[in-house]
Specification:
By secondary structure, the chain is an alpha/beta fold. It has five helices and 14 strands. Helix content is about 20%, strand content about 25%. The structure holds guanosine-5'-triphosphate and magnesium ion.
Length: about 350
């Protein structure tokens, strides 16, 4: 399955603060000893997984993530402030790779898991540490450690919540483009989509869910007709099936026949998958014949229940809001029941 959710970022940890070289200055004490304090540690860049996040989309706007530098130490053994960490909050399931080497740096599988991806520079040491019997006035310190800079690739293995079903040309890819920021190829010939892809549907403050676009199915797919039905395995972990039935004028078979053909393939592929909740969308409403829609609406209401049939057009946008919210409500309900 292709990853659509991927970002590349640059991270830079904070440099450590230098240790100070200072000497005590007091009235009547001509040769005060060393009193240079330590520097503060530089801030780390930390990637933290967060259940409340569902996509890496939110990171897209920011290419450079910087932690604060530690502050240098000063006289009177004063220690410099520690640099603040920079936290990058990502969805659970995010993997972090070093862009240059391809090395997997972190695999964040649980809520609030933290991975330091660029460690802050160590704290420098002030000259107060270097006093000895032989050297009462050391002009020596340890500078703060350097900042670490890295290019990272963050990848989220998306799990589809909703899986699309339908004949070739039913408008599956068009629907994914209309609902999400993904831009799968759309064309007026069958089998445009050859590999499954995913789109993230943004529900604003509420969150988001993922729709899987897969190649079209035709009758006999179980026996290898068309592209076969092996793509159905990508729907394995989806919570909800979205079955698109085109109401466009170019269809040869009536909608109920096409619907049933897909249902048969689904059952042949996997009985359990065929029992998942399904929402039927009569699509291409913008170019549909009103009488045909009415008749199909009646048939589907009878067959799957009125609440499981919607009318929409991915081109005009009609019915899409309702579709989005219906899917979202169902996905949330299914998640809560898990
Ligand atoms: N008028 C109209 N045309 C649509 C609508 N949705 C899709 N189409 C057209 O239908 C054709 C097929 O659309 P796709 O989205 O590529 O169909 P698909 O189901 O992904 O097809 P495959 O990938 O080949 O299985 C394209 O020419 C689309 O522009 C719609 O709501 N209204
Ligand atoms: Mg397609």
């Amino acid at each position: 399955m292709r990853f659509v959710d991927e970002v590349r970022i640059h991270v830079s940890s904070g440099k450590g603060g230098d240790g100070a070289i200072t000497f005590r200055r007091e009235k009547y004490v001509p040769f005060g000893g060393p009193d240079g304090g330590d520097g503060g540690r530089g801030g780390d860049v930390v990637v933290v997984s967060d259940e409340g996040r569902s996509s890496l989309l939110e990171l897209r706007g920011k290419a450079i993530w910087k932690a604060q530098a530690g502050i240098a130490g000063s006289g009177r053994q004063k220690t410099g402030a520690v640099g603040a960490d920079c936290c990058i909050r990502v969805p659970v399931g995010t993997q972090v790779f070093d862009e240059a080497t391809g090395e997997l740096i972190a695999d964040l599988v649980a809520h609030e898991q933290r991975a330091v991806v660029a460690a802050g520079g160590s704290a420098g040491k002030g000259n107060v540490h270097f006093k000895s019997s032989r050297n009462q006035a050391p002009r020596k310190n340890i500078p703060g450690g350097p900042s670490v800079q890295r290019r990272l690739r963050l990848e989220l293995k998306l799990m589809a919540d909703v899986g699309l079903l339908g004949f070739p040309n039913a408008g599956k890819s068009t629907m994914v483009s209309a609902l999400s920021a993904a831009r799968p190829k759309v064309a007026d010939y069958p089998f445009t989509t050859l590999v499954p892809s995913l789109g993230v549907v943004d529900m604003g403050m509420d969150g988001s869910f993922v729709v899987a676009d897969i190649p079209g199915l035709i009758r006999g797919a179980a026996e290898g007709a068309g592209l076969g039905h092996r793509f159905l395995r990508h729907l394995g972990r989806t919570r909800q099936l979205l079955h698109l039935v085109s109401m466009g004028p170019d269809e040869l078979d009536p909608p109920e026949v096409r619907y049933q053909a897909i249902r048969d393939e689904l059952v042949a592929f996997d009985q359990e998958l065929s029992e998942r909740p399904e929402l039927v969308v009569l699509t291409k409403a913008d170019v549909a014949d009103v009488e045909a829609v009415r008749a199909a609406g009646r048939w589907f209401a009878e067959r799957v229940g009125r609440e499981h049939v919607l009318l929409a057009s991915a081109v005009s946008g009609a019915g899409l809001n309702r579709l989005k919210h219906t899917l979202w409500t169902r996905v949330k309900r299914a998640k809560a029941a898990e």
